[in-house]
Every structure is written in C-alpha cells, then in structure tokens.
TrEMBL record:
InterPro entries listed in its UniProt record: Choice_anch_L, Ig-like_fold, T9SS_type_B
Pfam families cross-referenced by the UniProt entry: CHU_C
Transmembrane intervals: none
UniProt keyword terms in alphabetical order: Signal
Keyword Signal recorded: yes
Organism superkingdom: Bacteria
The name this protein goes by in its record: Gliding motility-associated-like protein
Keyword hit for Metal-binding: no
Organism: Flavobacterium aquaticum
Length: 672
C-alpha cells in the first residue's frame, strides 16, 4: 500500500467511527454455496437448481474470495447479491482508499475453462461458482457488474493492456463446449478492463457506453472502477439440463484484484415475450397497429396479463392483443408456487400532423439566381406540430435517395424545389414527407455611395422609391425613404421589396470643408526652387492643389519654380470651396545687359520687399574680391559701373545678407 493511500485509509477509517458504514457495501462470508445460488442469485420458487459448488482462495486466515454483499443505503446499483473476487472479499467494501492486491505466493491457480474461453494460458487466483439448472422457458438472463483495481485513473502506458479475465460459461448437458455469456452487448467480445473502458486517460477508450466510472476515494467499493450494469443472457431449451460456470481470475500475476458482482434475484427463468417495441430502437408499433403477444408454455394451467402493473380484466389466455402503449406483463400458473413472469414494453409512433410544408427564403447573394441556403434543422422544427424530441429526421433530394442532404442545403433547382423529409429512427410507420422550398429574389440594383458633407451643411440621403419598407441604422431608427444628416459617418438603409426580401445600401458620408492655409514653405535661390503648401490640421477635407486655378494635383509640393509671383489654389474635392494665396519665389538674375535700351539694364533682386526682406544688404565684387557696389533690397540695383566708369563684360560675384539671417552667394554675368 502506498503511503498516500495508507494515510487516506486511516483518515477515512477514523471518520467511519463517527459516520458509520452506511455509505459502503458490506460482505458476509457465512452463506453456503447452495444458499448463495438459490436464495440470493435466483430467489425464486421456480428455480430447479442442483450440483452447486464454489471454489476460491485458500487463505491462511480462513477468509474467502466469494460470498454475499449488501449495498442497502449506498449508491451501488445492486441492493445485494453475490461477489466473486480474485482476492479477499473483505477488501471489497469502500472507501476506495487502498489497493486490493491479494493471493500472491499461495499456490492459487487459474482455471482451464476460463483460459479456453478467453484464449489465455496464464490465469491465477480463480474463483468459481457453478451449478446445474433446468429452465422453464427458452431464455435465461442475469445482471452483473465487473469491478477492478486495474481501472487506473492515471496509468502508465505499459499498464493499458493489463486486464483480469472472467467468463460466464454455459453448456447443455451432453455438449462438449461452453458458450461465454460475459460479452460486450451485441458482440462476441469478452468483457475485460481493456475492452470496456472510459476516456480520460492515456489508455484508449473501448466500448465506453458500457463503462461506469473511474472511482475516487469516496465510493461504496474499494475498486478503482467498474462497468455499468450489464446483462448476461442466452437462449435455452425448456426442460433440458444446463451447467453454468461463473469464473473470474487474475491474468499474468496476482496483482490488482478484480471482482464480479451478481445482482441479487437477477437470475431470471422468466418467459420471453419478444423484443420491446420502442422508438429508441426504431421498432415501435405504428399508429393503429395491434400486436399479438404469445406467452404459451407447456404445462401451464393459467395466465394473467397486466398493463402498467394493473391486472387486465378478462385477459386469461396465452395470447394477448396489444392496442395501446404500456408495460405489459404476463404471470404464468403451473399449479404450484412457481409463477414465472414475462414482460414486454410497447411504444407507439406518433401520428404526425404537418404544421408547415412550404418554406421561403430570399436569395442572399449578389447574383440573384434563385438559389440560396436553407437551414434544414430549422425546417425540421417547423415541419410538424407534434414532433417528439427523440425523433430523428433527415432530408433527401428524392424519395429513393439514401444520401441525406446537409444541414445547410442550397437548392439545385432555381426558385422552387421539393425535397423529402424522412423519419430515420422509426422504421415502417411513415412515408417520406414532401417539403417545398421557394426562393424569392431582390432584382433591383442598389449602388453604395460615398458623398462629401461640407461643414455646417445638411445633406438628404435618398434610398430610392418603389420599396415596401425602409429602415435606417440611425439612432433611433428611421423608416422613411429619405433622411437628412449633418455629420459624417456610415449610414445604412435596409429596404424590402414586395416579396419581403431585404437588401442594404450603404451611404459613406465624409465630412469635408474649405481648406485653411497654415504655411507656405519656400525653398528658393536654388537650382530647383520649390514651395510646399501646408494645410491646417483642423481642415476636414480632401484637397488638391493648383498654381493656375485650372490644372490641379494631389501633391502639395510644387518644384522647378522660377523667380516670381505665384498664386496657389486649394480646392476641396467634395466641392466645399476653394482658397488661394499669393507667394513669391526669389532668385538672382544670371546676367544683365546695361546697354541703355531700358531692358535688363541693372542687376537687382526682385520682390524682396514682398517677402519683408527689403532691408537685406547686397554686395557686388569683381572676380578678385574687390568691392564694387553695395545696395539695399529696395534699390534700383547695380548698373555695371564703378566710380562712374563702365566695367567690362565679365563674371561678377555677390553676397546677399537677408534680414532673416540667411546668406546667399553666387555670381552673374555682365554682358555688353
């Protein structure tokens, strides 16, 4: 026992002094084998049982690996019954606080019949209960639970295939081979840890519909997990002698005990009235159908029929005709205390009432071709007024089709198509139901618009005429063809046509306004004079720029400008207005011709005063650096003389000291 499990066990044991053992099963080793079979497992005056024997572990303490268990007041599914274990049954009661791991080193062997049934050769610690019986009817059954310490909630990968084995072996007197009844329902797979296991561990789940749970500490038994209640059953011949052998054993070694719990009184010699007719199994009776149930038994002297545990007046024949749903039971009188019973449950399929069989959708895509997606789950819920929740409906393109349509189905025939609804889990009661699909279209074309809205203006948005309804996404919504707006944003209007099909048009309103010129940044006295027009950040519009008021550009930069006066025009693209402003590009003349013709006779810098640079100082030098002339920004310029003498044609140098702190140097040519 691990230290942790030992500590938990001590704590639980101590708490048990206060709370008692009511939450856990108890076991009793005092029952004889005959008592266990006749009084516990069968507990019926109809039992004809003999040659009962049991074998198990020969513990030095005298404890047994078989006996009676009582689960009254616990959550265990059986109230009482028989337990067969690969260890001491005294270790079986909960809580699940330590590992039951008995039977090592004591020469406790396995069982050859179990080995043959499961294809094993290495079983140990076998506990066997066997007896002969004579059935009254052609069917026997009993209920059981398989529990094991090998149901580990946190196994390592090499433990996934560890599994103890058990079998319920049945053969008729004179037959040479056994039939194993302990199999996964509707299969031939033996029930073991690795054939019935739940998910949630690294070991793969298997047939998990039949697995109950991995157990924590608080459980009525001291096992790590168990199956759900399973039923072992077989067809037999009434009046023949049969031998049954119930055996469980460890596989591979004695480690990790397992147990079989047989439900008290569950060994049933009852009469088989046939399979239950249930909606869940797809075989209910159809509306108005009757079923003749036959309980005829050789040697019977009387019959009583019951519906929902109430005796049916006058129903004393071997046959009974069922005409309504219910739980039916027959009690058969053999003239003694033995009165075996048979049961059958009858359900009727509902008579379905069609609520709606025409379903209309609007074509949802742009091409309006009369095809769209229908949600068949929604149609299923609207098709009938009284569809039971457990009815399964699928839809098919034609009645002979076996391929169900997808939940989201696009009709293949434009505008109108018929598909068929089929009840899948109730066979034989219903024909396919035609379901009519209709697709309406919205043929009018709606074009989204982007419109500018100037500051302090109001704009009317018009969704267009000829529609049945209008709904704008304003707050609150407006339901008119036209609305007025005074702010930018996204405005959507959903219109519906006469077929009640909607379509949405979007107006994107872009707030705009006349520009505010913040600055004109001039870069002149260069080979490439330029100007950058800066618009104030508070301006709302989308602007374009021009130097002639005719030809506009998106860029706010103008390059390759000659010296002179310019007017920049800024136009709002949304039509909110134009602003303009004059600016000047300064540059020096590259030459002058002082020949007295009145044209280009002096060298000077134009428009300095227009830039508030009239106080700038301009100095002219000859090529040797001799000062020839110094003039102001508003003078008439230099006429090409020095001390009244004409200077020769040549290159001359200058420096302009602008009052904004900038200095410009260069040279120019005097031409004669």
């Amino acid at each position: 026992m691990s230290r942790l499990k030992y500590i938990i066990f001590c704590l639980i044991f101590g708490l048990g002094i206060q709370f008692g053992n009511a939450q856990n099963i108890t076991v009793d080793e005092s029952y004889t084998p005959q008592d266990l079979v006749e009084d516990i497992l069968i507990n019926s005056p109809c039992a004809n049982v003999f040659n009962v024997s049991v074998s198990g572990g020969n513990f030095a303490t005298g404890e047994k690996s078989f006996g009676y268990f009582d689960a009254t007041g616990t959550t265990f599914p059986f109230e009482n019954g028989i337990i067969l274990s690969t260890g001491k049954i005294n270790n079986a009661p909960g809580p699940n606080s330590y590992l039951s791991d008995d039977g090592g080193g004591m020469g406790w062997n396995g069982d050859p019949d179990l080995n043959d049934a499961l294809g094993l050769s290495n079983t140990f610690n076998a506990t066997v209960l066997e007896f002969d019986f004579i059935p009254l009817d052609d069917n026997i059954s009993f209920d059981y639970i398989f529990s094991s310490e090998q149901y580990l909630s946190s196994p390592s990968s090499n433990q996934c295939n560890f599994t103890d084995g058990f079998a319920f072996l049945l053969k008729r007197n004179g037959d040479t081979s056994y039939q194993n009844l302990a199999v996964v329902p509707n299969t031939t797979i033996p029930v073991k840890v690795n054939t019935v296991r739940g998910s949630g561990t690294i070991c793969p789940p298997a047939n998990q519909a039949y697995f109950d749970a991995f157990n924590g500490t608080n459980h009525p038994t001291n096992f790590n997990g168990q199956t759900k209640v399973l039923t072992a059953q077989s067809i037999v011949i009434p009046g023949e002698t049969y031998h049954i052998k119930l055996v469980i054993a460890d596989e591979g070694n004695y480690r990790y005990d397992s147990a079989i719990f047989l439900g008290g009184g569950s060994f049933n010699f009852g009469i088989d009235l046939g399979v239950d007719r249930l909606i869940a199994t797809g075989n209910p009776l159809c509306p108005g159908e009757t079923l003749s149930v036959d309980a005829t038994q050789t040697g019977a002297i009387g019959y009583k029929w019951f519906k929902n545990n109430n005796e049916i007046s006058g129903a004393t024949n071997a046959n009974y005709n069922v005409t309504s749903a219910g739980d039916y039971k027959v009690e058969i009188d053999f003239g003694s205390s033995c009165k075996p019973e048979g049961t059958i449950r009858i359900e009727y399929a509902e008579s379905l009432v069609i609520n709606q069989d025409l379903f209309t959708e609007c074509d949802a895509d742009a091409n309006q071709d009369g095809k769209t997606v229908f949600n068949l789950d929604n149609i299923k819920n609207l098709l009938f007024t009284n569809l039971p929740s457990n009815y399964v409906i699928s839809f098919f393109e034609i009645p002979t089709s076996t391929t169900a349509l997808p939940t989201n189905y696009t009709n293949t025939t434009p505008y109108s198509e018929t598909i068929y609804a089929r009840i899948m889990n109730v066979q034989g009661c219903y024909s396919d139901y035609p379901v009519n699909l209709r697709v309406n279209t919205f043929d009018a074309i709606l074009v989204d618009e982007t419109i500018g809205l100037c500051e302090d203006s109001i704009l009317t948005l018009d969704a267009g005429s000829g529609f049945s309804t209008y709904e704008w996404n304003t707050i609150p919504p407006q339901f008119t063809q036209q609305i007025t707006v005074n702010s930018g944003g996204i405005y959507e209007v959903t219109v519906t046509n006469a077929l009640n099909c909607p379509k949405t048009k979007t107006f994107t309103i872009e707030a705009s306004g006349i520009a505010t010129i913040e600055d004109i940044i001039i870069n002149d006295f260069q080979e490439n004079n330029s100007a950058i027009i800066q618009v104030a950040a508070s301006s709302l519009g989308d602007y374009e720029f021009s130097l002639d008021g005719i030809n506009y550009q998106d860029s706010n930069v103008f390059s390759n400008l000659n010296a002179g006066e310019y007017t920049v025009y800024i136009q709002d693209k949304k039509g909110c207005g134009i602003v303009f402003e004059t600016f000047y590009i300064l540059d020096y003349p590259k030459y002058f011709t002082p020949n007295g013709d009145g044209y280009n006779d002096t060298w000077f810098i134009k428009n300095l005063d227009k830039r508030n640079l009239e106080n700038s100082v301009i100095t002219v030098f000859d090529r040797y650096g001799k000062l020839l002339k110094q003039i102001s920004g508003v003078s008439e310029g230099w006429n090409g003389t020095f001390n009244g003498n004409l200077l020769p044609a040549n290159d001359y140098w200058f420096e302009i000291r602008l009052t904004n702190g900038k200095s410009v140097k260069g040279h120019f040519t005097l031409k004669r």
